[in-house]
Write a structure and sequence with these properties.
By secondary structure, this protein is mainly β. 8% of the residues lie in helices and 60% in strands. The chain has a single domain, classed as Porin (Beta Barrel), CATH 2.40.160.
């Protein structure tokens, strides 16, 4: 009986996790596709070609060696309507043409009711936990950069748990004196052990992105010129099925979607962001802001969800060294 209840709860929570997610409904571990930092969330996670520090470990590791300096970042997201909390911490060590990164990303879905039968009051509550530990390496060859991340994955549901592994790999290219940056990445390619009786399928994704500095204008205030830099940051994301080992092919699905965002940089001090996501998602819009204070970079993201899912908030702090 206990095993049967566990399986039922697993299926129900799996369904809830799928309903909460923004992407392919046949996969799990969707915390790997959110963020990971407030900087990224403010642009609807569209950073396959845009520099965002150590966050690139989960987005496009090739970008790590394109950064101007080493950096460390911590980030926290809360989604009150679903009792979801995501935590992220990472560091990127930049040395000449090489870069090394380490990161931890975790997600907690709390206060899930536990019932042994049909009842108005639950017998108790439990939590679902996810964890990813990642290490990255990136090397730059002139305007071209390559990178890869290896990830250890862990998930826990009720009294069941499973572990697995995944790989992220990408490349990036800078053009027109760094005014244009292009990138592509294969994310979350790997597998999980069985959880209860079924292995979670990872949300494998191919992303193609661009970061384009559109134009810059200036205005006068207090006898000083204040520059405004307008940028377009966009990704096209293609969810894919598991790797077919016999043919070494990835079978693509028909639900690709765009993340399109605009960023306004004000005098290298303040960044304002807004983004739109296409496709079947409960999170169409994202908004964010960043503030540069010496070597620190503070970011906030506001993410409204449709159909009663409320609003998610994220804040992050990045330090350049």
């Amino acid at each position: 009986m206990e095993k049967r209840i566990g399986i039922i709860l697993l299926l129900l929570t799996g369904f809830c996790g799928i309903a909460r997610a923004d992407s392919d409904k046949s996969t799990g571990m969707h915390f790997l596709l959110t963020g990971p930092s407030a900087h990224n969330m403010g642009l609807s996670d569209g950073h396959t070609a845009s520099l965002s520090g150590a966050s690139a470990i989960f987005l496009n590791p090739a970008l790590l060696s394109m950064e101007a300096s080493s950096s460390a970042v911590v980030s926290y997201m809360i989604w009150p309507a679903t009792d979801t909390q995501n935590s992220f911490a990472a560091v990127n060590f930049k040395r000449d043409r090489d870069a090394f990164g380490l990161a931890i990303l975790s997600s907690l879905i709390d206060d899930i009711p536990l019932r042994s039968g049909v009842s108005q009051q639950p017998d108790g509550y439990f939590a679902v936990r996810y964890l990813s530990l990642a290490a990255s390496y990136s090397r730059r060859f002139g305007p071209l950069s390559l990178g890869a991340s290896g990830m250890y994955l862990f998930e826990q549901f009720y009294h069941e748990d499973a572990s697995g592994y995944a790989l992220n790999a990408g490349l990036a290219l800078e053009l027109m004196e760094k005014r244009v940056r292009l990138g592509t990445a294969l994310k979350n390619l790997g597998s999980m052990q069985e959880l209860s009786e079924t292995a979670t399928q990872l949300p494998t994704m191919i992303s193609i992105g661009a970061d384009v500095k559109l134009f810059q204008v200036s205005t006068s205030a207090l006898e000083e010129e204040i520059p405004f830099l307008f940028s377009l940051i966009a990704d096209y994301n293609i969810p894919v099925n598991e790797l077919n080992i016999s043919t070494d092919e990835l079978k693509t699905q028909d639900d690709g979607y765009f993340n399109v965002g605009f960023e306004i940089g004000v005098s290298d001090m303040i960044d304002l962001r807004a983004a739109y996501r296409t496709g079947d998602t409960q999170r169409k819009y994202s908004f964010g802001a960043g503030l540069h204070i010496s070597d620190f970079y503070v970011n906030y993201a506001y993410m409204p969800y449709d159909t009663g899912f409320g609003v998610a908030h994220a804040i992050s702090l990045q330090y350049a060294f």
